[in-house]
Task: structure prediction
Amino acid sequence: MGQNTRFDSVIVRLGGEIGIKSEWTRREYEKLLLKNIRNTLNHFGVAYHKIIHKRGRIYVETSNAKQVANTLTRVFGISSVSPAKHTSSDMKTIVQTTLSLARATLKKRSSFAVRCHRVGQHTYSSMGVCKTVGEQILTRFKDKDLRVDLTNPEATINVEVRDDEAYVFSEALQGGGGFPVGSQGKVICLLSGGIDSPVACWLAMKRGCTIVPVYFDNSPLTDDVSKAKALDIARKLFEWSIGYPRRVYIVPHGKNLQTFVKDAPRKLTCLLCKRMMYRIAERIAQEEKAEGIVTGEAIGEQASQTITNLKVLNEATRSYPVHRPLLGFDKNETEAVGRKIGTFEISTRKAKGCTAAPDKPATKAKLEDVKKAEANLNIEKMVQESINEAQTMTV
Amino acid sequence: MGQNTRFDSVIVRLGGEIGIKSEWTRREYEKLLLKNIRNTLNHFGVAYHKIIHKRGRIYVETSNAKQVANTLTRVFGISSVSPAKHTSSDMKTIVQTTLSLARATLKKRSSFAVRCHRVGQHTYSSMGVCKTVGEQILTRFKDKDLRVDLTNPEATINVEVRDDEAYVFSEALQGGGGFPVGSQGKVICLLSGGIDSPVACWLAMKRGCTIVPVYFDNSPLTDDVSKAKALDIARKLFEWSIGYPRRVYIVPHGKNLQTFVKDAPRKLTCLLCKRMMYRIAERIAQEEKAEGIVTGEAIGEQASQTITNLKVLNEATRSYPVHRPLLGFDKNETEAVGRKIGTFEISTRKAKGCTAAPDKPATKAKLEDVKKAEANLNIEKMVQESINEAQTMTV
Result:
């Protein structure tokens, strides 16, 4: 757009679920969101002048409106953002600003609509704004051969009036949704280099949790690429929780897995492996004062994830809930989220898969068989040694 | 389309996750899917002649192709369906059939593409089919002023060739996805008259589970409309699992709730209420030989659903996993699914909400406080009485 109407602001709309919380909770969430916004902009080195907080809205004053808007799509608790031009609520100014935006935005022979959202007392109605602005655009840009289409326009010119101020904008980018990170407690996330677990982590963050990823290192039964992938994924995920710890646990798990392969029925390998992961995660949860364990399991996705086997897995941890945000996701739906958040391309880098998976895994294991297999092993010692040898790393 | 090319078949594409199962599992799933398809068509009184099963595909011969296709969008394990015209794989016949479909389908001045999927040995290539058919369409319908657009066409003419047969079609309707109902075990679902729990139930069914909905009747602390809503929702959900039991448990819960309101700290009412529901669901799971409990909880959606409180809730049931498919869903995302599956409009019918919810519920309850409150009540007796007075109803 022209020099005079270069965007100077970003409108930040809060997730709808924040608005319906109790007054006290809403204020806490908004405070948290403001902090997360500031931290995120600072972290990515995106300059801004000022953040203004009004009920249900946040406005960022900046000369980098597009960059600020793009950056904030990665902050949870935000439903959408719009680069905007800030003006006074005076009708003449509004018309001038919209004309400038229309010149830059509306293509020849295209359809458009004008929408107005208004809070406060004004000499005009919202309808009046739409009508006046629409007419002015049609008159002024006769050569563009534009037409008004209120139901399915190719472009929209929006005016948001608040008391004596107004914002003019044409697009809204979708935000992360959910709740500000930090509004919920901490969860331990089992993070592999695969496709599913990063998406499960992301969904927990989206709903406000801070995460502590735990990577189980199966070497020598897998290669180092898997670990590198998991760490890169963790880095990618932490971009959504700027300002919070970026610590990852790396637990040596190959020895455990070798024991299961050697000293327990082969068809139970994956279940024994996962139960061990749950147990170790539980210890880490205690240390970290976390409130749950998050995994990427989806009903029936793998043999170890049948509804029968999930019950067998659950039995291994009694003091922490196992949260599985992907339970009802189809693989293609999980992949779609992974693509959107940038973890899919890391997850699908070539790596040697786990070589310990049996040809014929049990799909309906009996808990008593699993417990019998575990009774022959020194499970508690294995857990303790894994914990002792676990490392943490800030990524 | 013309009389000669009226659709006579429906192509049924299986969910992608079925195809990657082991040979044995895949066959079992396909057998189940065939049974579910038959049951669903029979239940809704949709006539068909024959169901033909080939690797990775099912074809339904029918003179009601559109109705069959629409009905099958409600069968899980199906990724998509297409009303189609069945012909021989002879190129001349293919061209004739596509021309007839093009006449009926392609609008004046629109863009189209021809796509071909081919299995078997033929004298022509897939590319060759696309080229020949495309050219013939352009020549034959000059008056329509059509143009070819391979990347973003307004309509598509598809040819699927399998050995000496071919199917011609223009549209694919999205199926339910997931796995055939019955491929996973049974789960107990806490079903209220609200928006969330039906969607959680549906997601469990989508991944192959059969469901046993349990409605907790809070009267006199709520009205009878809530119960009627829950039953209508159960009926709607069972349309997705035709051929399986349609039984709902109705558990009197009002007395329990009154006790919590009267004899326990008010801020804990919802947590005590839910823990009681979990315990009762657990008993029903034992009786029903179910493998888990499904709830509509989403992290942070309500005070009782903070990540801290979910841990407190979980502690009430130790022998069954609590599966929460909506953990990572925003409210608007849950509503969108509810609208799609037809439960949202029932859920939003006016009813008196629960009047027992406190003004200031605990958002971070302490497990010891909850256990102390429960120690003052005869929880086991309350559970037993609720179970004794529970009724089942086939809807």
Remarks:
- Chain B touches chain A through 50 residues (CB under 8 Å).
- Chain B has 14 helices and 15 strands.
